[in-house]
Design brief:
The complex is a heterotetramer of chains A (116), B (237), C (583) and D (113). With 116 residues, chain A is an all-alpha fold. Chain A has 5 helices and no strands. Chain A is elongated and about 55 Å long. Chain B has 2 domains: 96 residues, Beta-grasp domain (Ubiquitin-like (UB roll)), CATH 3.10.20.30; 134 residues, Alpha-helical ferredoxin (Fumarate Reductase Iron-sulfur Protein, Chain B, domain 2), CATH 1.10.1060.10. Chain B is built from 10 helices and 7 strands. A 5-stranded mixed β-sheet of chain B has the order 2-1-5-3-4. In chain C, the strands form 5 sheets. In chain C, strands 7-3-2-11-18 form a 5-stranded parallel β-sheet, covered by helices on one side. Chain C has 583 residues and is an alpha/beta fold. The termini of chain D are far apart. Chain D has one domain: Up-down Bundle (3 helical TM bundles of succinate and fumarate reductases). The chains are: A mainly alpha (116), B alpha+beta (237), C alpha/beta (583), D mainly alpha (113). At the B-D interface, helix 10 of B face helix 1 and helix 3 of D. The structure holds flavin-adenine dinucleotide (FAD), protoporphyrin IX containing FE (HEM), iron/sulfur cluster, FE3-S4 cluster and FE2/S2 (inorganic) cluster. Protoporphyrin IX containing FE sits at the interface of chains A and D.
Chain lengths: 116, 237, 583, 113
């Protein structure tokens, strides 16, 4: 499959799938790091504080904004996936996908604003 | 002689020519373009068609990366700067040039229990059926599938997972599951719950987006997921 | 290149339309345990042929006033008293069983009335609402369900295997097997079988405008002809009045715009933009297929305008939205090809649709050659001079099933037979002949043949026209023998198959013209401008064409009125003429 | 390569996580004001059986859900099949669970004072 083929075939739900998959993958890769940082509470509290202090810095904040966004979009994406699987109606998939993206974005923005 | 031509690239399995200039006409489908090449430019080009009107589902090919019925696709719809690239359908073994072996597709259709399970015989009367019954409406939604494999070629899960039954076969399973005359309820649920079953579908929706018949295999598959989930709890009591 | 592979089976079925698939199912039901059944088909199983393209539906008398007797009488009258009455009876009677089989065992779903019973409608020429259908895609439903059953049943599949010759035993009395080309590899394969069903579906694609699928090129009838079998009613080519006209460069040309358009009030307009059908028949556009086809043909001839050959069908007066809704599929199909059926006008032309003629068979599908059975559009007799809309698919499914049953029973007492090697070699030589000639274009020859048949042996015929046609057909055949095919790669070599298609079409075209000359009257689809009368129904006879060596002879046999005579009816006294509500 | 069982597990864990994620995000949005500190986090969670239960459930769900999810990706994009695929799923599951539970323990009962 060439990139052009993929672009020609792409459509909103397919993009939603890719976003869901990549966000899931990113979460799975990030979580061990997140867990390790929290475990520092047990082993090296000072370092935990140091790391958490990073949240003040721009990059880290953006990264965190990203993570919250990832979690949000993955969750709402997942819920929108499951809705037609468990509810007996032919779902307006595209609208759901768009709504999931919008809600996630809002949530992440809220997070960012609070963090500022 | 028409002056205008199309630039046509054919993805070949043999090492024959791949670039052609095809005379343009007002009423011209992608199939006509392919036929012209075989009839007038390269007699060795292989492709398949039968009905020429979107009923047999044997002419599907990849046009500019997108699977389509070629007999019902007007060439103007796919030309990009006067050019088009035509290849064999994705996700199926190529026989030669633009023809693919559709057996895997049909093997999976049968593997999904896509065949009527009799509950009556020719000696019985025909069952009276209310066409507006919700289950019947659900069954009728996918009944006009012509097994062209466009959705099968569109689905990246099929590409990535050779055992995945694919949208058309699963949709057939769903249709039968909702068919009051069909006695295969358990067999179908069993068949669509295995390694290649409906649970592999990621609702990418390419099947529904590209089905030339405007059918909705994605929702049919969602229906199967729902029914199998129900049976999951039932079986566990 | 000429390497020959051998293959044995018990029952061999050629073709996977309604006839071939039903035969496969029934043969499994009646044949002794362990019988090997093989389906060989020129395309893919269930995806080739015309049964799949059936739109309107399936004729069957299911009560509500309608009876098998009435269906039978309509079939006989529609066929202008030429049908083999026993076959027609069998058709009408067994259709009742077959439709229940289709619904109950095969799993088809046909459209329902609000009360849940089957919905039935009336095609032109029927005296009852009789046609069972699934929207206007009836064939897809029938063939898809049949195909699933057959695929699941585990019969042996020889897909993209094209039959090219029926090979008899050395004594010529029975069939030994069938020579084929495995199209995917280009190799020859000789398949021996105890019983062979030929169900390759006729298909008059030698006309400039034609409806059947691209794989149908009269191969079966050409093979039967070479095998010395008698063919009947070969002059009977049914034209559908409204085929799409979009130019010779597109395969869309000739495809059917459905009958229902006229039924719903669609108007046919000539070059001057005027309706003309009422000049020909009081029913106007709603007249039967043959009448409307002739009306259109006459208008076309009158105008003789090379820029605008056909006439127009116009629907817009019924309200474009309404048309779009009622004929969704048709409107979309036209739109895909660049035409606006709902609001504009679409150019149409009569198009060769169905072949009533075929191999002479008995009511159990047996032929005079032991081991060879013929069913579906390849078999002659059931329709006589005209096929009623809806009787085509009934015919192929009914007789396909009967063929399966018959072969299943017969095969128990049969053994495999050895072929006449000289004939086998001769058939191979015929097929490789073009590979030894200098390659050239074939399509122009196909177009010439199609012009000839349209001009000289088409909707309206005359003696001089057909004689001229014969000369022109011969010219095309001669030209074909000088055109070769590049043999560097025979795998999926469509051009080689185009050549073979042309060979079949030329052979059968000659028979159509000769049978047309032999019938000096006008019946149903066969219209002689020089003999417009029906020649007296009491004296009905049918043509039989037969080839021995290069000698093609057409004789005439009297129709046996085994059930009913012209002027009589088998309907009870006092039955109304028609049960269809008149518009 | 999902069968009904894996599919159900993935969906059930997803449903379990949905409210937990909302809770988690809510707490984060609330807590993040004025920056995060170890003290603050621990102040909330330390010694709380409730937090332990919530986060342990969350972690278990993540481990199951994530492992099944990675399995699908490994099969479809990485070409894993058979034992390799099963092993991968179990190992990632165990890894996520181990690391996760350790973290939960750390912020509830295990923190250095
Ligand atoms: C557009 C259209 C609409 C129609 N609508 C109706 C309708 O509404 N009602 C009705 O009753 N009838 C209708 N008919 C007619 C009906 O379709 C046919 O009469 C009937 O289906 C013929 O069935 P069959 O099995 O004989 O042949 P087909 O279904 O045509 O099957 C022939 C098979 O033989 C195969 N074959 C051909 N040559 C070879 C070879 N050399 N070797 C091996 N295999 C070969 C083909 O590939 C195909 O599989 C319609 C026909 C057309 C074209
Ligand atoms: C409330 C939270 C979550 C919900 C509702 C949710 C939902 C889902 C759903 C429904 C799927 C299946 C997608 C498919 O079959 O295509 C999925 C896949 C996945 N999830 Fe989650 N998930 C959540 C949280 C998480 C978390 C925290 C992780 C991190 C480990 C994660 C990782 C994954 C991965 C890796 C996949 C596989 C993606 C794929 O197959 O394309 N998910 N999720
Ligand atoms: S669902 Fe649509 S795309 Fe898929 S096989 Fe059927 S008709 Fe073709
Ligand atoms: S494209 Fe494939 S992933 Fe599912 S929704 Fe359709 S089958
Ligand atoms: S040729 Fe039959 S669908 Fe295109």
């Amino acid at each position: 499959m060439t990139a052009r083929d993929a672009i020609n075939r792409a459509h909103p739900l397919w993009v939603a799938f890719i976003v869901h998959r990549l966000s899931g993958l990113a979460l799975a890769l990030f979580l061990p790091l997140h867990f390790w940082i929290l475990s520092l509470a047990m082993t090296d509290p000072a370092r935990l504080d140091g790391l958490l202090g990073f949240t003040e810095r721009g990059i880290v904040k953006t990264a965190e904004f990203g993570l919250v966004f990832l979690l949000a979009i993955h969750m709402f994406g997942g819920l929108r996936l499951m809705a037609p699987e468990f509810l007996p109606w032919r779902a307006p998939h595209k609208t759901l996908a768009a709504a999931a993206a919008a809600v996630s974005f809002l949530l992440a923005c809220l997070f960012l604003m609070r963090a500022l | 002689m028409p002056v205008k031509t199309h630039q046509v690239t054919i993805v070949r399995s043999s090492d024959a020519a791949t670039e052609f200039e095809v005379p343009a006409h007002d009423n011209q489908t992608v199939l006509d373009v392919v036929s012209w090449i075989q009839q007038y430019a390269d007699p060795t080009l292989s492709y398949r068609f039968a009905c020429r009107v979107g009923m047999c589902g044997s002419c599907a090919m990849t046009v500019n990366g997108v699977p389509r019925w070629t007999c019902r696709t007007h060439i103007s719809k796919v030309l990009q700067d006067g050019a088009v690239e035509i290849g064999p359908l994705r996700n199926l073994p190529v026989v030669k040039d633009l023809t693919v072996d559709m057996d895997p597709f049909f093997d999976k259709w049968i593997a999904a229990e896509g065949v009527h399970h009799e509950s009556r015989t020719r000696h019985d009367d025909i069952a009276p059926i209310d066409a507006s019954d919700p289950a019947r409406v659900e069954a009728s939604a996918g009944i006009e599938c012509i097994n062209c494999a466009v959705c099968y070629a569109a689905c990246d899960t099929v590409t990535a997972n050779d055992s995945y039954l694919g949208p058309a076969a699963l949709q057939r399973g769903w249709t039968l599951l909702n068919d009051a005359k069909d006695a295969g309820h358990d067999a179908i649920l069993e068949a669509v719950s295995g390694t290649g079953g409906c649970h592999n579908c990621h609702s990418m929706g390419s099947c529904t987006a590209l089905c030339p018949n405007e059918l909705d295999p994605m929702s049919a598959i969602a229906g199967l997921k729902r029914e199998t989930a129900k049976s999951f709890f039932k079986r566990r009591r | 290149m000429t390497a020959l592979e051998h293959h044995d089976t018990d029952i061999l079925i050629l073709g996977s339309g309604g006839a071939g698939l039903f035969a496969a199912l029934h043969a499994q039901q009646t044949a002794p345990e362990g019988t090997k059944i093989t389906i060989a088909v020129k395309g893919l199983i269930g995806k080739s042929g015309c049964t799949r393209m059936v739109q309107g539906g399936y004729n069957v008398a299911l009560g509500g006033g309608d009876t098998v007797e009435r269906h039978f009488m309509d079939t006989i009258e529609g066929g202008k008293w030429l049908p083999n009455q026993d076959m027609a009876w069998r058709l009408c009677e067994q259709a009742v069983v077959r439709i229940r089989e289709l619904e109950n065992e095969v799993g088809c779903f046909f459209d329902r009335n609000p009360d849940g019973t089957l919905h039935q409608k009336a095609f032109a020429g029927q005296t009852a609402d009789r046609t069972v259908h699934k929207g206007d895609l009836t064939g897809i439903e029938i063939i898809n369900r049949l195909m699933e059953k057959v695929l699941a049943s585990g019969v042996e599949k020889l897909q993209e295997h094209r039959a090219i010759g029926l090979i008899p035993t050395a004594d010529g009395a029975s069939l030994a097997g069938v020579l084929m080309i495995d199209m995917r590899t280009g190799r020859f394969r000789f398949v021996r079988a105890k019983a062979v069903l030929m169900a390759t579906g006729g298909g008059p694609t030698m006309y400039k405008y034609h409806t059947p699928s691209g794989d149908k090129t009269m191969d079966g009838l050409a093979m039967a002809l070479r095998a010395g079998l008698p063919l009947r009613d070969m002059e009977m080519v049914q034209f559908h009045p409204t085929g799409l006209l979009a130019g010779s460069h597109t395969r869309m040309t000739g495809t059917v715009l459905e009958e229902g358009l006229r039924g719903a009030g669609g108007q046919l307009l000539n070059h001057a933009g005027q309706r003309f059908m009422f000049d020909y028949d009081q029913k106007g556009e709603r007249a039967t297929r043959d009448v409307v086809s002739r009306g259109i043909y006459a208008e076309m001839r009158k105008a003789n305008d090379p820029e605008q050959e056909g006439v127009f069908i116009s629907m817009s007066h019924l309200g474009p939205e309404n048309v779009r809704q009622k004929f969704k599929g048709m409107v979309k199909r036209c739109a895909d090809s660049g035409f606006d059926l709902a609001a504009g006008q679409v150019e149409v032309v009569p198009t060769a649709h169905y072949f009533m003629g075929g191999v002479v068979v008995d009511v159990d599908t047996r032929t005079e050659m032991e081991g060879l059975y013929v069913a579906g559009e390849d078999a002659g007799g059931a329709h006589g001079s005209n096929r009623l809309g809806g009787n085509g698919v009934a015919n192929s499914t009914v007789f396909g099933g009967i063929a399966g049953d018959t072969m299943g029973r017969d095969v128990a007492g049969m053994t495999l037979r050895d072929p006449d090697m000289t004939i086998l070699q001769a058939e191979i030589a015929r097929a490789v002949y073009p590979l030894m000639q200098k390659p050239d274009l074939i399509q122009p020859l196909r177009q010439s043949l199609q012009e000839v048949m349209w001009d000289n042996v088409g909707v309206m015929r005359t003696k001089t026209g057909m004689e001229q046609g014969l000369v022109r057909i011969q010219k095309v055949s001669d030209a074909l023998m000088k055109v070769g095919v590049d043999d560097t790669n025979l795998a999926f070599n469509l051009t080689w198959h185009d050549w073979l298609n042309m060979a079949s079409l030329c052979e059968v075209s000659e028979v159509i013209a000769k049978a047309g000359l032999a019938r000096e009257n006008s019946r149903g689809a066969h219209y002689r401008e020089d003999f417009p009368d029906d020649g007296g129904l009491e004296n009905s006879d049918y043509t039989v064409a037969r080839k021995s060596g290069d000698d093609l002879r057409v004789t005439r046999e009297p129709v046996a009125f085994t059930i009913v005579r012209p002027g009589e009816t088998i309907l009870p006294d006092g039955e109304p003429e028609t049960l269809v509500a008149q518009p | 390569m999902l069968t009904l069982r894996l599919y159900m597990l993935q969906r059930i864990t997803a449903l379990v996580m949905a409210p937990l994620v909302l809770l988690h995000l809510g707490v984060m949005i609330y807590a993040i004001q004025g920056g995060l500190s170890a003290e603050e986090i621990l102040g909330r969670t330390q010694g709380s059986a409730l937090w332990f239960a919530i986060y342990a459930t969350f972690t278990l769900s993540i481990a199951i859900h994530g492992a099944i999810g990675l399995r699908a990706i490994a099969a479809e994009w990485g070409g894993f099949r058979g034992y390799g695929l099963e092993a991968l799923m179990w190992v990632t599951g165990a890894f996520l669970l181990g690391l996760g539970l350790r973290a939960v323990w750390a912020v509830t009962y295990g923190a250095a004072p």
